[in-house]
Amino acid sequence: MASHIVGYPRMGPKRELKFALESFWDKKSSAEDLQKVAADLRSAIWKQMADAGIKYIPSNTFSYYDQVLDATSMLGAVPSRYGWNGGEIGFDTYFSMARGNASVPAMEMTKWFDTNYHFIVPELGPDVNFSYASHKAVDEYKEAKSLGVDTVPVLVGPVSYLLLSKPAKGVEKTFSLLSLLPKILPIYKEVISELKAAGASWIQFDEPTLVLDLDSHQLQAFTAAYADLESALSGLNVLIETYFADLTTKAYKTLVGLKGVTAYGLDLVRGTQTIDLVKVGFPEGKYLFAGVVDGRNIWANDLASSLSTLQQLEAIVGKDKLVASTSCSLLHTAVDLVNETKLDDEIKSWLAFAAQKVVEVNALAKALAGQKDEAFFAANAAAQASRKSSPRVTNEAVQKAAAALKGSDHRRATNVSARLDAQQKKLNLPVLPTTTIGSFPQTLELRRVRREFKANKISEEDYVKAIKEEIKKVVDLQEELDIDVLVHGEPERNDMVEYFGEQLSGFAFTVNGWVQSYGSRCVKPPIIYGDVSRPKPMTVFWSSTAQSMTQRPMKGMLTGPVTILNWSFVRNDQPRFETCYQIALAIKDEVEDLEKAGINVIQIDEAALREGLPLRKSEHAFYLKWAVHSFRITNCGVQDTTQIHTHMCYSNFNDIIHSIIDMDADVITIENSRSDEKLLSVFREGVKYGAGIGPGVYDIHSPRIPSTEEIADRIDKMLAVLETNILWVNPDCGLKTRKYAEVKPALNNMVAAAKLLRTQLASAK
């Protein structure tokens, strides 16, 4: 039996690619330097998989930013604003699309299905002149071959590419993106032809949209696309890879009926019901790439259970046609457990990162082929048993408190309109109040201070002094800019989830457990291994310190329970909602302590609420019920005069706007600028929103500085659909990743735009 890996992390075990990218963007290193780092990482990844015994090793899963942007480059689908004039797409055009530049904004970025990874959304229309403009897939295949590794080149499938795209600005929203299939398939054929000429024997098309709720027209597009490609694919083994959920019966029938296809990749971790479809009918002579090793979490595989699943499947598809695989790309997990020097041995024994998952996949393949590594399986079984019985996992008091939540919906006693009136009397804010989302730039000096404190190189006294000085600097800057509701800038935090997890029980932390979020941005998700509680206050000292430095309202800054859950590696031994309720109770304690300390505005970020939405509509209602309930638990006990804010990041919120309203926050700040103000269309369509709302007025993920006039124009568009008395003015997201040279002028222009609109509104009365 053979083994296969869907995809692998790109950043490197110690974020080598991140630092190379940022050095290149800062003009401190050359394109050649960046390419050398990338080539070394690719070589190491291919060698590692080959040494582990993996038969089907992927290529072209490496990316300098995002695999969908790579597909856009391959197809030459560059929006005209970037001034690309044809030829092979270089770094200038590629990174301008991803990040924007001094004169034009970036393309929209949104979440990749229900993960915390982001992709750059293609902008398409009837006038796009597609052309073969990036030979990356072929180049990487040849590169691996020159190193003695025969790989499976991976392409984003043509139908998923179009279904993940959006109509470009100026194109009718009703434009059928699938109508572009005949225009892009000739380019896919060129790529396929070059791969065949280079010696490829397999090719993998990632078609993850097959797991979504698709209509018959969309499913027919898959049938048509692969029928068109059939002759070009002749002579190649073709794998269609799906992941992240079950397939519907119709989608499964469409998949196994595709012409010219040799193999089907199925996620059997999140798609447990798909096995039933395989049992009912699997096409004779085809390969099944069985995704039994979880690509999205860090728990060691239950090898005995997975082997049993594979044995069941072997009886259906045949021994020589079954391939052990990961459930999806390992992009979504950390790189290598070997680099974790501070995790204790017990917890470490429960875990497997990408490198370990590669070994697990091959161990399963060998076991099914009659070459079972008895010692490896025995150690795995012992670790599984240890985790189930460990007293560190269970806290009876927490379980009792969470169980007691049943029977109440935990709403605040007064409606939002009355609360806003009470808050305005206390806060006395102007029309169109200005604020920021929380974090301010994290300078090298600030990072050094935190690093040295963690390493016990400076005293706690020196650390506190340095952080207080940074807070004072941020407070003074906001007062100088005349921002209305201030933040302390979060200088004590490296990461919004990690910071809280470090202070909650039931969490473990890694040293190098980095996962790519987008571009060079990496996060280090905490590991929730047990019941969660808050031993002591987490933010009260810093928020109180910041409030003592100003007469203006200072926001207490917290991360909400759903976001902590969705941005962590979550225990898989109980339902996710039970863990979320435990976190909600811990955050509730913190909210009430902040209020007692005199903090009148408290922001509870739920940046990741939307991304946790299940991919299938039939599962939405249950998720939204417990997710929204968890948020309400956190703040149900505060006074009417305490203003509760929440913030949400990049995503399409339009389909869950009623759940957002049901969160019952006093003010919500939300992404808007990079998605062509898609959010505002909800209000144009008549949704009534009575709470405060701050749709972001500029994109902080780009270094570009918007003008006062541009921001004023955005605010004007908001005022066309939102009441003046509920609109807030703020950036899209936190400012941590930006430099002060970008932040100061951008915020200055934002405040100036708000004042300009206030003057216009006053004179219009």
TrEMBL record:
Pfam families recorded: Meth_synt_1, Meth_synt_2
SUPFAM superfamilies xrefs: UROD/MetE-like (SSF51726)
Catalytic residue list: 701 (proton donor)
Binding positions (Zn(2+) 2): 658, 662
Role description: Catalyzes the transfer of a methyl group from 5-methyltetrahydrofolate to homocysteine resulting in methionine formation.
Organism: Gossypium mustelinum (Cotton)
Residue positions binding 5-methyltetrahydropteroyltri-L-glutamate: 18, 116, 521-522, 567
CC cofactor note: Binds 2 Zn(2+) ions per subunit.
The Cobalamin-independent methionine synthase MetE C-terminal/archaeal domain, residue ranges: 432-755
GO molecular function: 5-methyltetrahydropteroyltriglutamate-homocysteine S-methyltransferase activity; methionine synthase activity; zinc ion binding
InterPro entries reported in the protein's UniProt record: Cbl-indep_Met_Synth_N, Cobalamin-indep_Met_synthase, Met_Synth_C/arc, UROD/MetE-like_sf
Name of the protein described by the UniProt record: 5-methyltetrahydropteroyltriglutamate--homocysteine S-methyltransferase
